[in-house]
């Protein structure tokens, strides 16, 4: 039982880090966009990189969460979440590579 609570704590910490990274990147991109609009500059907001980085933390949390899955329903839902987040990560990386 102690192992399960430790795993849940680790998962919550990784999810928090992922949310923190995505929030920071979103705020930074919004500020850069506002600077572009009001000062007529050409700063390119770099939201893709921080989204991908935050998504990696969230996927790590889901993978670790798979250790404590008890029912087939939870496993199917977890598999779907991992697949969707993986697809989002691939799309973000692919978009980053294209000019």
Model description:
This protein is an all-alpha fold. It contains three helices and no strands. It has helices spanning 2-39, 47-65, 72-97. The protein is elongated and about 55 Å long.
Give a concise summary.
The protein is mainly alpha-helical and 99 residues long. It contains three helices and no strands.
Layout of secondary structure:
Blueprint: H1 2-39, H2 47-65, H3 72-97
Helix pairs in contact: 1-2, 2-3
Biggest beta sheet summary: none
C-alpha Rg, in Å? 17 Å
Number of strands: 0
Helix content: over 70%
Strand residues, percent:
under 5%
Number of domains: 1
Mean pLDDT across every amino acid position: 85
User: How many helix segments?
Assistant: 3
Can you tell me the overall shape? Answer: elongated
- Element string (H = helix, E = strand): HHH
Q: CA-to-CA gap between the ends?
A: 50 Å
Secondary-structure class: mainly alpha
Contiguous uncertain segments of 5+ residues: none
Features:
single chain; 99 residues; 0% strand; 3 helices; mainly alpha; elongated
């Amino acid at each position: 039982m102690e192992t399960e609570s430790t795993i849940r704590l680790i998962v919550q910490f990784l999810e928090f880090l992922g949310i923190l990274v995505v929030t920071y990147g979103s705020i930074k991109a919004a500020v850069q966009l506002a600077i572009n609009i009001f000062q007529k500059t050409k700063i390119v907001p770099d939201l893709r990189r921080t989204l991908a980085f935050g998504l990696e933390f969230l996927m790590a949390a889901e993978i670790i969460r798979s250790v404590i899955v008890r029912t087939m329903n939870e496993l199917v839902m977890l598999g779907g979440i991992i697949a969707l987040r993986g697809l989002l990560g691939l799309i973000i990386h692919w978009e980053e590579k294209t000019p």
